[in-house]
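Appendix C reproduces, verbatim, an entry submitted by the partner laboratory led by Prof. M.T., so that reviewers can inspect both the input and the predicted structure.
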Amino acid sequence: MFDWNRWLFSRLAAGHQVDAPLIPAARWIAEHGAAVGILMLLVLWCLRPTQRAGVFGVGLVAVLAAAVAHALADAFAMPRPFVTGDSAPWIAHGGRGAFPSAHATVMFAVTFGLWPLRGLRPAALAVGVLGLVTAWARIHGGLHYPMDIVGGAALAGVLVYGLRFIALWLRARWAAPRGRRARRQLLRRWRGSVAGGSL
């Protein structure tokens, strides 16, 4: 059976190269990419006062995403590439579970959380690109398999859009008349937020 996860890892990772020229850049990005993403949230907080509530909410979701990702990684206890022998330990790291990637979960949670907020789509794209670059760096340095990144992005989507649905459901429950009309309106607004419409 074709193992796409290891095949893609072999194409992206430094592996056991004697001289891996991209490792210094990958090491810096892998260690600081998430911090740059959080700094971007702080910049948005300062520059977009009308969107502070939304940015704060995205920050809270990012914290929750990190906690859930770490809990799942401990539960699944999937080994990292440098533990399985598929890569040299290019970047110093503990051996705790790798799936899902907490970095990917947090950065894509920020991306998905910012996307529907009015006027913040360029920032969401910037964080998304940073997330992809950080994902590459952590794969290249032997910290993650591609499946770990995919799992983190999927978890981020479930958390962000699941919480958004719950928030809209509660709002409809408190403020809108009950019945079929309220349910239709709730589903329309949730689909709009998933597709990128602003709330």
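The longest helix spans residues 146-175. Additional entries are available on request from the coordinating office.
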